[in-house]
Each structure stands twice: as structure tokens, then as C-alpha cells.
Amino acid sequence: MSACYKNNRAVSLKSWIRSAALLVMAFVVAACAGSYPPVPQSDRLAAPDFDYVIGPGDTLEIFVWGNEELSSAGIVRPDGKFTTRLVEDLQASGKTSTQLARDIEKSYGDYVRQPVVSVIVNGFVGVPQQQVRVVGEATQPASIPYRRHMTLLDLMIAVGGMTEFASGNSSVLVRMEGGVQKSYGLRLDDLLKDGDISANLALMPGDIVIISESWF
């Protein structure tokens, strides 16, 4: 047996071992991804009540009734603060529009008699706790402001679906429940490719969808 033949045989054996190892790893990962339980039936169509909370990047309109010259509009800064015509550095992030309106009224009370203020949110970004995120093999991974009655199908439409490398039925939903992080299996292939509406479910603020990559 020539040295060249022995070397080729050794290389082939190493390649086979490496391929076998990758194959075993793929099966292990797939098995782990498929081991997550489905979302409980009682939560699949739930539509939780929530009050939208202003976040950095939101666009606000401030109306002061009877004092239109004090009305203004702008974007909440990255530090979560907002400046009006009379007051600088008002904390806006983490508050509802009603709460912020009352804060502005209190601040304006030093300049205007009994001010009546309304706050309207036009551009929505929200705080991270009220966003829904999609990572992994989404066509356009993104963080999207949660809205009531938002479903998994709505989310997938918003991110343009999955890439050709996605393993949709191995994907995972990560959700905080009572301060505890839980993971649930998703059937995105069944939902998007087969039109199986039973694979759809209601989302909740803060949900994270991880779309797995196919190993084959």
C-alpha cells in the first residue's frame, strides 16, 4: 500500500468522522429545538390588556387648550426626555400619554392658569418591554411595537417571512411569565407554508421569536 493511498484514506476517514459529527450535532440541535412544549391552549388567543407606554423615538404632539402658541411636537430623545416650549427635559419614557399630560399641566401651572394639556402619540417605538422581537432566519429581523390582538402571523408578515435557510418548525418563542422566562415551540412552516391556522397564536408584549436555521 503506497504512502499516497494511506494519506488519502486517512483524509477520507477524517472527513467522514467530521461529517458524521456534524450530522449528530444537527440531530441533537433539532431534537432540542423540538423539545419545547407548545404554547398552552388558554394563551393561544389571549389578548392581554395593556396601556401603551411612551419610549425613546416616539413622536409626540402636545396640545395646550386655549394656548395654541404653547402647543408643540417632537421626538422623545434617546435619554427618554422631551422638551416643550416652556419646560426642558421632561421625563416621557416609561409613562402613558395621560400621565405625561398631567406632568406637563403641573409644570405649566407655574406659567399658565389651569392649563389643560393633551398628549398624542403619532410615531410608535415604545419601550423594550412592549416590543416584539424577531431574530434568526427572518427575512428582516426587527423589533416591532406590540399592539393589542397582534398574532404570530401578523408578526411574520411584518418581517417579510422566513429566509430559505429557515427551519420554521424548529423555531422558539421566548416569553416572560410572572418574572420567569419560558420557551415554547413554534410551527412556522405549518403556518406559513401549509396555511395551518392552528399554528397561529396571540403574541404578548416582550415576546421574542427565534427562527432556527436549517442544518440541511
Gist?
By secondary structure, the protein is of the alpha+beta class. It has helices at 3-33, 97-108, 152-158, 188-192; strands at residues 59-64, 72-75, 81-82, 90-91, 117-123, 131-136, 142-145, 172-177, 180-185, 208-211. It contains 4 helices and 10 strands.
Strand order of the largest sheet: 7-6-10-8-9
Number of domains: 2
Output the CATH topology of the largest domain.
Answer: Outer membrane lipoprotein wza fold like
Terminus-to-terminus distance: 37 Å
Q: With helices defined by DSSP (H or I, 4 residues minimum), what is the helix count?
A: 4
| Cα radius of gyration in angstroms | 26 Å
How much strand content do the residues show?
Answer: 15-25%
Report the order of strands and helices: HEEEEHEEEHEEHE
Shape category: elongated
Number of E strands: 10
User: Which residues sit in consecutive blocks of at least 5 with pLDDT less than 50?
Assistant: 1-16, 18-33
Structural class: alpha+beta
Which architecture of the largest domain per CATH? Roll
Assembly status? single chain
CATH level-four homologous superfamily name of the largest domain? Outer membrane lipoprotein wza domain like
Helix content: 25-40%
Domain Soluble ligand binding: 132-178
Signal peptide: 1-33
Keywords: Signal
Pfam family, one: Poly_export
Topology:
Layout (H helix, E strand, L loop, with lengths): L2 H31 L25 E6 L7 E4 L5 E2 L7 E2 L5 H12 L8 E7 L7 E6 L5 E4 L6 H7 L13 E6 L2 E6 L2 H5 L15 E4 L5
Parallel strand pairs: 6-10
Antiparallel strand pairs: 1-2, 1-5, 3-4, 6-7, 8-9, 8-10
